[in-house]
Amino acid sequence: MSKRKDDAVVQQILAAGIRSRDGIDLTEITGDIMRAFLEMGSETPDNLKCSRQIEYGRADGREASPAKVFGLKVKGTEILVSDVMHLVESEGIPESVLEYYPDLTDDQWSAVTRMTTMILISLERGEPE
């Protein structure tokens, strides 16, 4: 049995980003990413639920540039995870976060959400028009 790799999810997403777009099998890519995800985080109920709701695929017709992007998205939709996180950036600190981290400042929260968004964007690949 192979040793679990903590970076396997990122490695699978990066590998998907460099594959040729001709004949790309998004179902297979999603399966590879989600297997690595579950190996890294275990098959807890929240991880299993996540693995059924997120996929690697193409989002078309985005208002942001580029219009067509391959990346993590909500399964069966055109909603990129990075686009959702971009919206979270403009929200205040949720009560549950403040309860756990009462000293977290608005500037720190903004930095955390911005970094998360930028990491997700860095894992996406635009498709040439």
Core attributes:
globular, 129 residues, 52% helix, mainly alpha, 3-stranded antiparallel β-sheet
Q: How is this structure best described in words?
A:
By secondary structure, the protein is mostly helical. It has one domain (8-126). 52% of the residues lie in helices and 11% in strands. The protein is built from six helices and three strands; from the N terminus they run H-H-H-E-E-H-H-H-E. It has helices spanning 8-18, 26-41, 45-53, 81-88, 95-100, 106-122, and strands at 54-59, 69-74, 125-126. It has a three-stranded antiparallel sheet with strand order 1-2-3. It starts with 7 loop residues before the first helix and ends with a strand.
What's the quick description here?
The chain has helices at residues 8-18, 26-41, 45-53, 81-88, 95-100, 106-122; strands spanning 54-59, 69-74, 125-126. The protein is mainly alpha-helical and 129 residues long. The chain has one domain.
Supply Rg: 16 Å
| SSE class | mainly alpha
Relative helix content: 40-55%
Instruction: Give the number of helices.
Output: 6
**Low-confidence parts lasting 5 or more residues at pLDDT below 50?**
none
How many discrete structural domains? 1
Average per-residue pLDDT, rounded, comes to: 88
- The oligomeric status of these chains comes to single chain
Largest sheet: 3 strands, antiparallel
Outline: globular
Approximate strand percentage? 5-15%
Question: H/E order of the elements?
Answer: HHHEEHHHE
Number of strands: 3
Cα-to-Cα separation, first versus last residue: 43 Å
Walk across the major sheet and give the strand order: 1-2-3
